[in-house]
Amino acid sequence: MKKSAIVLITALLLSPAGYIFAQQTHEEKVICELAAKNCLNRIEIIQKKVKKLNDQIKKGSKTYSAEELKKLEQKLQETKDLLDKLEDAGK
């Protein structure tokens, strides 16, 4: 009788713990998925920025001074570095 009571009490105490653990795991999964999606969105935005900077640089000295082109190239390199870091973090 005592063993049955102990088993019953243990089962009753552990069932909420299992539910809480399962809920926590689900929440962690959702957070992870949102973070991954956010990261992919940021990568796409940065890739578009790289393309725009390349397009501006291609216009060359007809549109920009040498100093402005240098700034654009520097910004392009910074953006590429950021993109590389994000892509490496996703691996």
Automatic annotation (TrEMBL):
The keyword Signal applies. Residues 36-89 form a coiled coil. This is Uncharacterized protein. Keywords: Coiled coil, Signal. The lineage of its organism: Bacteria, Pseudomonadati, Thermodesulfobacteriota, Desulfuromonadia, Geobacterales. Residues 1-22 form the signal peptide.
